[in-house]
Amino acid sequence: MTYTKEQRDLILRFQKQEITGYTLYNIIARRQKAENKDILNRIALDEMAHYRIFKKLSGVDIGIDRIEVIKYTILSWLLGPTFAIKLMEKNEAKAQNSYARLAHIQEILPIMHDEEIHEKELIGMIREDRLHYMGSVVLGLNDALVELTGALAGLTFALQNPTLIALTGSITGIAAAFSMAASEYLSTKSEDNGKHAATASLYTGIAYMFTVALLILPFLLLQNVYLSLTITLCTAVLIIAGFNYYYAVVKDENFIRRFSEMAILSLSVAALSFGVGILLRKFLGIEV
User: Within this chain, do residues 109 and 203 fall inside the same structural domain, yes or no?
Assistant: First the structure.
């Protein structure tokens, strides 16, 4: 069959995409437990089958995209296989509309079916412990962001001393982290949801403490309290964006909606707390 230049370029692009996917799934599978390893190996076999179809159409061998393999391998190490794989599939899905231009080629039809249904079902079967405790992480992050950004905003105007703000914020944050971890332990223990109470508590506490450290850091490094507060609020927005992007990818949810909701909530509480700090300083006549 004779192809136009555009069709041949698409065939070669998809061929590289499939061999790259095959290589990546095999690399990620090596570090997984038996069940996940089997699923990933099955997806890799699908990718190789697709590669062979495209190779038959193009008539040439083609190598992997090494940069993509390195990028997604590192992401799988840092953020887990589910995030890396779903992000890769999400990016590939944008290109799959181009399959329509090759729909007249009979051999392409099974690949379209596999990409749309079979592989998505297999990816959904991957089990990752950290995702089982995502709710605990959400609890820790969300509570720390809302509570501490508000507290730091109020303390900034009330105290206007970076050392005192950092000290007071640290005490507040650490105490709240222990409190939230204990609450999550008791809550999880009372539920029959397959989660370990101690593990859920640990995830909540670590998420809270990590957020506390990042939000307070500017007050430890800078003398200008308003600049410190600005950096703290920007850091909070970045944490919200990063976490919600991760959550949206692994849970197949809308990033913009989740990010907007959490960012508006945290910044609104900070604004209200800043106003409370102004009022308390004015009416109580406190000078530090």
Answer: no
Q: Quick one: 278 and 156 in the same domain?
A: yes
* 60 shares a domain with 163: no
Nearest to 184 by CA among 137, 129, 244: 137
Say how far apart CA 57 and CA 85 lie, in whole Å.
27
Supply angle C-alpha 279, 283, 284, rounded to 5: 110
Q: Name the average pLDDT for the chain.
A: 81
d(CA 61, CA 54): 9
Q: What's the domain count of the chain?
A: 2
Which is nearest to 181 in space by CA: 151, 140, 138?
140
| Inter-residue contact 150 to 269 (CB < 8 Å) | yes
Indicate whether this model's pTM tops 0.85.
Answer: no
Q: Say if residue 71's pLDDT is above 90.
A: yes
For residues 220 and 254, state if they share a domain: yes
Structural domain for 71, as ranges: 5-127
